[in-house]
Amino acid sequence: MQDRRHACAVLGLTEDAIEKEIEDRYFFLMKRYKHLDADEQPSPGEPIFAKINEAYRFLIGYTPLQPVVFRELGWKEKVQHVRDNYMMEITYSVVLVLFIFAVGVGVTELYWAFKAGTNDVGVYSPTDFPMSEHAGKK
């Protein structure tokens, strides 16, 4: 795309179209052309999918992301990159580990309560058990 006039003409808009009009027209055209059958072609004289996409990207000022070469980053940039791109995954992982830990503690409490012969967890005292019965001691 070289100029705004050509990009607006591809989308079927006037040159003074605002961003909302551009987006509405783009999504209208995407819905129209996206569900064409494999053997079906757009109507003659209408722009093809790639030209619509190119015109939309030009009008909204889209710039493609540059690939990040992780090896070339310093340690501060690496930490920032991980924070920016993987924070949700890190959060889910920490929550999952804490949940598994909590379940493990709960199961251990139930095991020791059962071994002490009580039905209520937390009623037994660790002194009720000789040290030889605890895990890791023989």
Structure description:
The chain is an all-alpha fold and 138 residues long. 57% of the residues lie in helices and 0% in strands. It has helices at residues 4-11, 19-34, 49-60, 75-116. Helix 1 crosses helix 3 (49-60). It is elongated. The model has no long low-confidence stretch (mean pLDDT 79).
Please summarize the sheet with the most strands. none
> What's the average pLDDT?
79
The counted number of beta strands is 0
Alpha plus pi helix count:
4
Q: Separation of termini? A: 78 Å
Which residues sit in consecutive blocks of at least 5 with pLDDT less than 50? none
Key terms:
0% strand; 138 residues; 4 helices; mainly alpha
Please give the structural blueprint.
Layout: H1 4-11, H2 19-34, H3 49-60, H4 75-116
In short:
The protein has 138 residues and is mainly alpha-helical. The protein is 57% helix and 0% strand.
